[in-house]
């Protein structure tokens, strides 16, 4: 077997994150026709997160500047979406977070690197970790309570058909967890 068990574990978890983000991006891309701009932004975010999470080892010096440019464009799109209401602010935070992580990766740090090696600003990283931890907890709570409370002492209800709203929430939760995982690896 080549490499240590911890490097194999890190590689497997990286590829699982790639898969999670790519599936979320694909689902959001499928929704673009009916939902428009917000779904397009989420699709770009999902695919960009998937690309950023691909473990390339020493290669991939092109990724930080290219992804930085893509996420700067996504941030401009998110600013445009803010015309429709403050509920689109999360898209702006997500885009700027990805710009920040791409810049940190380009400066020699990034995923799988130790702190202090150009991995970003600890205070900003900590604030983003708190934001995404809260986002994930809130999103998980909303997803769990979407089906309503189970009857106390009664029979177990039949399986519930998952609605598109619940799938959207699950997609957003998956991307929030992916963002949290990528921030933790900085």
Which shape, going by the Cα principal axes? globular
Using DSSP, what is the number of strands?
Answer: 0
- The count of helical stretches stands at 6
Task: Outline the low-pLDDT stretches.
Answer: 111-117
What class, by secondary structure content? mainly alpha
Q: Radius of gyration, Cα only, in angstroms?
A: 18 Å
Strand content: under 5%
Largest sheet: none
Report how far the terminal alpha carbons are from each other: 27 Å
Order of helices and strands: HHHHHH
Question: What's the multimeric state?
Answer: single chain
Mean pLDDT: 80
Helix content: 55-70%
Give the topology, please.
Elements: H1 5-35, H2 37-53, H3 63-81, H4 89-106, H5 122-145, H6 164-184
Helix pairs in contact: 1-2, 1-6, 2-3, 2-4, 2-6, 3-4, 5-6
